[in-house]
Design a protein that fits this description.
Elements: H1 2-61
């Protein structure tokens, strides 16, 4: 009976650990998506600024 109780206890602990790790993984994946969106937004912003600087440079040449 002791081994069965021990096995049940260990199974419960492992299942809790697995659930905690899955939740942590999901959180990290969400953070990664947010960071990718920020990177894309900043990339677009830098492209717009670069284009604006090119336009300003062309206007100064004429």
């Amino acid at each position: 009976m002791g081994k069965k109780l021990y096995d049940s206890f260990m199974t419960a602990i492992l299942e809790d650990l697995i659930r905690a790790e899955e939740a942590h993984l999901q959180q990290l994946e969400q953070e990664n998506v947010q960071l990718e969106q920020q990177v894309n937004s900043e990339r677009q912003r830098s492209e717009r600024l670069a284009q604006r600087l090119r336009e300003l440079g062309e206007n100064m040449d004429t």
